[in-house]
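Researcher: Going back to the complex we discussed earlier. I've cleaned up the inputs and rechecked each line, so this should be the final set. Can you rerun the prediction on the complete assembly and write out the structure?
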Amino acid sequence: MVRFNSTREKTAEAPPKTVTRAQAAPAARRPRITRDRLLLVALGLPGALALVGFHYVPLLGNVIAWKDYQPYLTIGESDWVGWANFSFLWDGNPEFLNALWNTVILTIIQTVLVFPIPLALALILNSLAGERLKRTLQSVLYLPHFLSWVIVVALFQQMLGNAGMLNTFLVQNDLSIVHIIGAPELFKALVTSQVIWKDAGWGTIIFLAAISRIDQEQYEAAAVDGANARQRLWYITLPAMKGLIILLLILRLGSSLSVGFEQILLQQGPVGLQASEVLDTWVYNNGILGGDWGTSAAAGLVKGIVGLLLVIGANKLAHAFGERGVYQK
Amino acid sequence: MTTLENATIGDDTVRPTRDGKRPPWMEKPGPITQTLKFIVLAVAVALVIVPFWSVIATSLADQQTINDAGGGMVMWPGSGLNFDSYVAVLSGGVVTRAVLISIGVTLVGTVLSLAATAGLAYWLSRPGALWSKPVLMLVLGAVLFSPGLIPSYLVVKEFNLLDSLWSLILPVLINAFNVIVMRAFFQELPKELFESAAIDGVGAATVLFRIVLPLSKAVLAVIGLFYAVAYWNAFFNALLYIQSSEKWPMALVLRTYVVNQTTIGADQAAGEILPPQLPLQMAILVIAIVPILLVYPFLQRHFAKGVMIGAVKG
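Model: Rerun complete. Updated structure for the full complex:
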């Protein structure tokens, strides 16, 4: 996420100081087109074209949400159908409601359970005295973040599956096996623990950076005044990170309709759709596999717009609390 | 996800506390606190390391060892290391082809992505560059919202890229967030260098290749590695766009033979007698993980320099 009007950008756009205002002003308003300036554009053009072609052209492709799109027709040839594709919003489509329900539940579980873990880990890591130990631990804990979901899901299967590590151990000790992978009632817990395993360590990085910016003299002064470690944590560290925590929660809210798409898609087979379908997988299963292109495009569009509104709304909320949020006005 | 403000380079992730010792005013933590901390960290480290260890051990185990363990995963490969599974999957067949395809896509993709990202970031970083304001808005907009699955698929289809390996590269060629991080880095370069280049009448391309890029090796390395990891790991785009199994990258092979446990037969691996299924599957898994482990120390070196902070993504 980007802070739109950071001070750095303003200074960067400002004319160089060696030029007087009178000379700089017209040049800044309308740069003359020279060969060298066009060359600069040419260097950046391939990237810009890729961005337009695969990001903004698809945005236009959302028109099929109002069409009866068929793969053998072009988008232009398909018939307009008005708002019919959006009917899932009001006609109580059970698949959509189930996907929405699972998405919201997973988001709540993951915000409540997953969010505090990196913060706690970061506080523990930060309290370690040995620099080398700290770095080694960080290296190990960051690693899972770089593995793909396919690998993470495969590792979990090998650890917790019916023939996995855990059950092999249980059988050897004459205990009965526990059925974890593929059990619908445990699916949300499984998905959540995978998220924790993959990203809890990586999540500490941003908290550690914030902690390292806190003025050390505050701690010293507090200690001299007799504040113990817990009080220093409560009255210095946590207040200093309030803005960051709010920012991260806002971002979380903005993406609250997208939970673990690849991760869930990979594990839907044995669990069944009732327990595992979320909005993203519904769009995929219903649209690309099921051929209901119009409804799926409409659902994707609604989801994108609601997500954007959530970010804007959460940001307003942050401003109301006197925090900076993701962007400023 | 983070703010531009955090994308500072050279800021240390964890500031080294004076020679790693406790400052004099800080009391020594009590034994209970120490024990709790130790337990939490030991459990966290074990949870990361044990799965890797047992996957590697199982991939090297022979049938006897696995049978003795009840047919499942083992923690120790038993009598001697047995590389049959690796030989079998790497001497021809689906897995070998997938490894080559993934390496090719990763190399070509990373080079193209890095070139396109650096070019775009350079254009947007120069003050007063032509049309840079609207293009910057396009980049920022791309960070804020994504176009959606179905329209993206249709565009790839319209461009005739379905079932082509280019469908794994072109749609993800540019990551808008990386453009912003790199642009911020370029803007931090000393202004005097650009001014003296302008006085000498050096053109934009020469400035890029002679001044900007040589001074930006750290950010190029980190963003390059990010792109490389993303290309190597790419799963969903491959699932969506690649139809014929001859073009499968590693992620699809993993899904089919390891996650979904499709039987690995003579068509997928070579050898007179195939090793048992479980070590074969674990060998495929190890092959998918090893490249990440290989580049990880290089990524790691740059965490220490703090470049990573700006690239933290949600």
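Model: Worth noting: Residues 1-19, 306-314 of chain B have pLDDT under 50 and may be disordered.
Researcher: Good, that matches what I expected from the previous run.
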